[in-house]
Predict the structure.
Amino acid sequence: MLPALDDRLVGFIAAQKIYFTATAPAAGRVNVSPKGIDTFRCLDHHTVAYLDLTGSGNEAAAHLGENGRMTIMFCAFDGAPLILRLYGQGCVVRPREAEWTKLLTHFEPMAGQRQIVVLRIDSVQTSCGFGVPLFDFAGERTLLPDWSTKLGPDGLEAYWREKNNVSIDGLPTHAVAR
């Protein structure tokens, strides 16, 4: 275990096309989500963030609001094998919050952006990754940004209200200001 990222691991993260987030409420389902579309940034060796795009659920926001626990995992699907896990306390920053504008400067704004998830790293773990298969990257999917653009701001807010405001375990996500 390491207490923080080092420059080698920051470089590894920058080269990855996919990462996985894991959160869980005190009682209820564990949620694991794959993420991509160039939405992840290392802010420093102790802090990372990702631009969270609209999805069919909003479990991480609900879980982080309840207890803050989060793990983010990266796997090398090409090159040398490696699995990297970041453990820590996460929080959600929404467009209506003061920190939003500063954090957004680290990202290219995207259609469907919903919130920014920030993880303050408690510990970092690497493992061999010898069992992870090799894959070739074929490209990013554009379905999510295209769908979000079609919905527009009012359509996205209506979608958040209907589909993203409560977790599958009934916890509030605060996706829409009240």
